[in-house]
Amino acid sequence: MKNQCSNIEYKLSDNFGFIAGRASLALSKRLQQKFRKLGYDITAEQWSILVKLWEKDGESQQEICTGTNRDKPSVTRLIDNLEKSNLVIRVPDKDDRRVNVVYLTNLGKELKNILIEEAQATYEEAFEGISEDDILTTRKVLNKLFINLFGIECEKHICACSEYVESGSCDCKQAS
């Protein structure tokens, strides 16, 4: 079945990846600017790790990789920097010392409300003049695009672990 995209003249300004990337870059830069203004040197990438840990503290580095759609070396570097800033701490898993579990420090927990408030203000600025329906539709379309290309969706999560992307099947912990 042909969709509406087959009738679009291919231009960079019509490319969904380019448009989504440009919007993501603008949000990331603005968020980082606002955090710096408050005195916190936190990147958008580090922000995603913090948000993941605010959702569930005490995640393994692999769970953070899966939940943030980042590779292991990137997550390791981000956690290293968050540790240097005293926002997280890595602890060897009590059952498997090869696994590191990442916990928020008291400072990491204390920053939650401050940073979320600033992020909310950034999103309000970004979405000014855009209806709630358009925002929900955009989110739904981008998630569906992602699922079409790389993921499976279940009630709990969207999986894009490297195993699924390469083989089409997934046995990651989040899929259970």
Describe the structure in your own words.
The protein is mainly alpha-helical. It folds into two domains: 12-128, Arc Repressor Mutant, subunit A, CATH 1.10.10.10; 131-176, no CATH class. It is built from seven helices and five strands. The strands form two sheets. It has a three-stranded antiparallel sheet with strand order 1-3-2. Strands 4-5 form a two-stranded antiparallel sheet. Helix 1 packs across helix 5. The two termini are 33 Å apart. The model is unreliable at 161-168 (pLDDT under 50).
Please provide a brief summary of the model.
The protein is mostly helical and 176 residues long. The chain has helices at 16-37, 44-55, 61-68, 72-84, 106-126, 132-149, 162-167; strands spanning 59-60, 88-92, 100-104, 152-153, 158-159. β4 and β5 form a beta hairpin.
Distance between the termini: 33 Å
Low confidence ranges: 161-168
CATH superfamily of the largest domain: Winged helix-like DNA-binding domain superfamily/Winged helix DNA-binding domain
Helicity, as a percent range: 55-70%
For the residues shown, what is the average pLDDT?
A: 85
> In the CATH hierarchy, what is the class of the largest domain?
Mainly Alpha
Sketch the topology as an H/E string, one letter per element. HHEHHEEHHEEH
Strand content: 5-15%
